[in-house]
Amino acid sequence: MENKWSETRVSEFIAKYKGQWGEDLALRTYTSQLIGAEKELVLHGGGNTSVKGIFTNILGKPTPAIFVKASGHRLATIEPGGHSGLNLEYLQQLRTLPELADETMVNELRTHLFDAQAATPSIEALMHAFIPQKYIDHTHADAILALTNQPDGERIVRDALGGDVIILEYVKPGFALAKAAATAFEAFPKSKGMVLMKHGLLTWGGTARESYQRTIELVTRAEEYSARKGTNPLKTRITTSRATAEGRYLKVASILRGLLALPTENADWPYQRFILQSLITKEVLNLVDSDRGKEIALTPPLTSDHLIRTKALPLWLDAPQYEDDDKLREQISAAITEYAKQYDAYFERHSKKMKPGLRRFDSRPRVILMPGLGAICAGKDVVDAGIARDITAQTLAVKTKIAASGRYEGLSEEHLFDMEYFSLQHAKLDREDKLPLQRSVALITGAAGAIGSGICQALLENGCHVAVTDLPGDNLDSLVNELKSTYGERVIAVPLDVTDAESVAKGFDQTIQTWGGIDLVVANAGIAHVSSLADMDPKTFQRMERVNVEGTLHILSRAARHFKVQKTGGDIILISTKNVFAPGAKFGAYSATKAAAHQLARIASLELAESGVRVNMVAPDAVFAHDKRKSGLWAEVGPDRMRARGLDEKGLEEYYQSRNLLKAKITAAHVGRAVLYFATRQTPTTGATIPVDGGLPDATPR
């Protein structure tokens, strides 16, 4: 492993942070970020670091202090405030206690913070406090776990790392581990670090540089040892190309996502869905296609920290029938049922140990391994599924390394349960936001316009994953860039032409490939044209028909087929118009084609109800813009309407506002909220239309 210490960067961190936080925390921040940048050392909030120093309180009294990485912060991006300051002298006195319950320990940590608003310190804060070294780094280094997670692991660690390292047998994180680590350190105070069996590595030093360099040195020794001993690599029985695997995933994803969904007792939300992330790499394909793939994969995670993301074991599907959809569905269904039975039995064997107040996890797998495809990971949203995917990638890589030189041995079932149902781990999950559409995926057509962008924003604000589709170009790209800056991985750009059935199919496929399926389709794409019937160009009318009618048909047809495969119901929302009910002069092509689209949606509500799919319509009037995004429809219609009424653009907006009963300015945000009404299933409604027009009696649906 490369030592990335840089005096230039040190100077930058000191210049940036010393004034407010002091030099010790500036250096602590620098090396924490160095460690966090290495996925082979820590992943997704794993690991923790600390520094001891002095805190001067409001009375000017100096107090011995320890600053420990707070739970929920990532080392790769941590700032000085991410290390919560605590009263060191008080924490060290806790070591005299014979035992300390987890919840009581957290209370003691929180009540001895210097800042009441600070985040809760790591559950391993007492281990950092009890060991007297100034700087301490704790990582879950892959190379170290490759040594510890084997039979006779202690001997292997000693052979690899030498005699200047303490080896501590596995102890559950918390107070017991803190005491055991401190006792082990006192027996060998001149050691460079401590290996926590089946858990990770501790290093320390009088300076930030010394502790960091010891981490790099010991991890490098472990890497070199494994490389020397790795003489028995896996043998693949077949070779699957990534293109083949990705094609299979597209076929599997919607089936799997539907079967993973948890039935509920809520008629409006009959399933709790998962978001999927695929892991299809050469390395993973070589493992699942190898002679020992199943044996290697069906073992516990590298470290107990991963359990709440991946569960104790993955699901393995033997000989998937990729060429027969019905048989493949039967296979996956049977495998999930069997996995759930085994998980239920595991839970029952140990449930008496579970503390009151903890919720039981569902019985569905979080990681699915399939020969000829790779791995599929599930989570409540793309972030959760992405964490499971990243952990799985690292886990399989380390297990493959171990298989080349020995045999993998993870934690015992008892230890696994203790950590899976550890209240302090559950607290990490309970703190996470719960938004109504967090587990949902939406595809929106015509999304780059005023109404479409307003709908995107409304759905994203409520947790949805959104495929933003429109014709390729700057409008689509700029919108997605704007949304990604706030909503990150929950937004993708999908170039799509609704008039082309193949383009629509590709758009659905891209969305499914990204998140595993689709739950909500918003058919918003449409165009307008101003012309009297007497002057109407038939070719122009036909163009309107292709976009507004055939485009809607392509979307409805593809959505219906997808929902039939996924089998967890869904929602389709057509953005209709007040012109369906109250058409305007010189607006015949638009009114007629949108009326046809509206009728198609009503028919879809009849045909898809038996599949649990609700189809509803939203009928807005006169939305001119959303923020800086102008309406394409009004760019087409506005000039004629302004000429006819002798108004400028502002005057035209005021005219449309004044003609509705409420004298309301209709915005894209209003349309977005109407879409949300249906998308969040506030009532058991299908085949209905919500007018968003401020009240136009002639346009009332009837």
What can you see in these coordinates?
The chain is 47% helix and 15% strand. The chain is of the alpha/beta class and 702 residues long. It folds into three domains: 7-229, Class II aldolase/adducin N-terminal domain (L-fuculose-1-phosphate Aldolase); 242-428, L-fuculose-1-phosphate Aldolase (3-Layer(aba) Sandwich), CATH 3.40.225; 441-636 and 665-696, Rossmann fold (3-Layer(aba) Sandwich). Strand 15, helix 19 and strand 16 form a beta-alpha-beta unit. Helix 6 crosses helix 9. The longest helix has 29 residues, at 538-566. The protein is globular and about 100 Å long.
Strand order of the largest sheet: 3-2-1-4-7-6-5
Fraction of residues in helices? Answer: 40-55%
Low-pLDDT residue intervals, each spanning 5 or more residues: none
Distance between the termini: 71 Å
Task: Characterize the main sheet.
Answer: 7 strands, mixed
Note the quaternary state here.
Answer: single chain
CATH architecture of the largest domain: 3-Layer(aba) Sandwich
Overall body shape: globular
Average pLDDT taken over every residue: 94
The CATH class of the largest domain, by name, is Alpha Beta
Question: Strand content of the residues, in percent?
Answer: 5-15%
* Rg: 30 Å
* Structural domain tally: 3
CATH fold-level label of the largest domain: Rossmann fold
How many helices? The count is: 25
- Overall structural class, as computed from helix and strand content, comes to alpha/beta
Total number of beta strands: 22
